[in-house]
Amino acid sequence: MTRPVWVNIAALGFAGLTLAALLALGTWQVQRLSWKNNLIAQVEARAFSAPVPAPAEAAPEYLRVTTHGTYRHDLSLRVKAVTEIGPGWWVMTPLETPDQTLWVNRGFVPTGLPETDWLTPKGPVDITGLARTSKPDGTWLEKNDPAANRWFSADLPEMSATSGITATTGYYIAADHTGPPAAFPRGGLTKVTFRNKHLSYAITWYAMAALLVAGLTYAIRNRRRA
Q1: Which one of 104, 122, 163, 170 has the lowest number of neighbouring Cβ atoms within 10 Å?
Q2: How many DSSP H helices and E strands does the chain contain?
Q3: H or E element that contains 21
Q4: Phi/psi at 180 (nearest 5 deg)?
């Protein structure tokens, strides 16, 4: 039985639209790849360059900064963390500098470590690390509860309100590690990594487009022979 012409036209039209969509998706992923590579280059330039004085208000993510001040250990807060070392806490401590008060993530401490082991150093200190932006509300599974002093993300406005300090910066400093390698808090654990699979996605979309063209060519040839 001969298939109506309109059916063939509709099938070709659908195949053409599908091919256009696959090519568009592949091209979009190529554009995303270029954007991601530029972003990675910018971030790495900030993170691994010489530190700059800590800005008074805002700082781009992963900017390497340095400052000088005195820790307020009595106002330290702990943020739940799971690292390559194991479960524990990030120690968030206000740092009073001559110009401002800002939060410093001094590093990781494992569960069960006595506070007396990480309430140092006392007196003026020099801090160098990466600027990280405030993370409000907690995580997808666990929400911050300031009233109960339960923290799952570094929500700087809430932390400042809980501690009764005025910290004007919209970022905190993830401090580099200082002291012996095995000392806690263990700083320098910030991972400057980005997921970048746009090239594989682009290849997948273009490969599907090529397969569609090959299948369509095969079907048309068979139809003409018939």
Answers
A1: 122
A2: 3, 7
A3: helix 5-47
A4: -60, 150
Residues in the chain: 226
Tokens representing residue 60 in the block: 């781009």
How many Cβ atoms from other residues are within 10 Å of residue 34's Cβ? 11
pTM of the entire structure? 0.77
Which amino acid is located at 147 in the chain? A
Helix, strand, coil in percent for the chain, rounding step 5? 40, 25, 35
Proportion of the chain above pLDDT 70, given as a percent: 95
Letter for the amino acid at 164?
G
Q: What are the Cα distances from residue 104, in Å, to 55, 110, 125, 165, 178?
A: 14, 18, 12, 13, 13
Read off the pLDDT of residues 117-161 as tens digits, 9 standing for 90 and up.
Answer: 677 777 889 999 999 999 888 888 889 998 898 999 999 999 999
Residue 2 has a pLDDT of 59
Nearest to 41 by CA among 199, 198, 191, 192: 192
- Write 146-155 long-range contacts (CB < 8 A, 24+): 149/77, 150/80, 151/77, 151/78, 151/79, 151/80, 151/92, 152/79, 152/80, 153/79, 154/79, 154/90, 154/92, 154/103, 154/105
Burial class of residue 89 (count of CB atoms within 10 Å of its CB; 0-12, 13-18, 19+)? buried
Q: Give the mean pLDDT of the chain.
A: 87
Q: Which residue, among 46, 80, 43, has the nearest Cα to 65 in the 3D structure? A: 46
